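Open question from group meeting: does this chain pack into something compact, or does most of it stay loose? Before anyone orders reagents, we agreed to write out a predicted structure and look at it together. Recording both the input and the output here so the notebook holds the full record.
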Amino acid sequence: MKHENDYIEHYSDDSFWLKSKKFAIKIGKEAMEKSLVMYYCLKDPDTPRKHKNVIMGALGYFIMPLDLIPDLLPGGWGDDLGALALAFAMVTKSIKPEHVENAQSKLNKLFSRS
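Structure tokens returned:
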């Protein structure tokens, strides 16, 4: 099984926003909210490096075009959502109210376009 560091190389802000905008409806509000909260946590200079690595690993896995279960297959988002949920649980101590507020604001914008 791969370690989160194996997926960090797949993370970039541009790729994250591209995939988020394209697949927000498919992955659902709850998963999208978790990914956005982690994104804003990642951008916070106060977030410890070890938590940033976990976040980049999970978001890198989310972004990766080919992963354990290809996203285009039925149920293909399950592995991505599992990785996001696990990472979210691991970095909860670094999540601030402003990360959640920023995520909610962006989530509203993403879902109002559909």
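Observations to bring back to the group:
The radius of gyration is 13 Å.
Residues 97-112 form the longest helix (16 residues).
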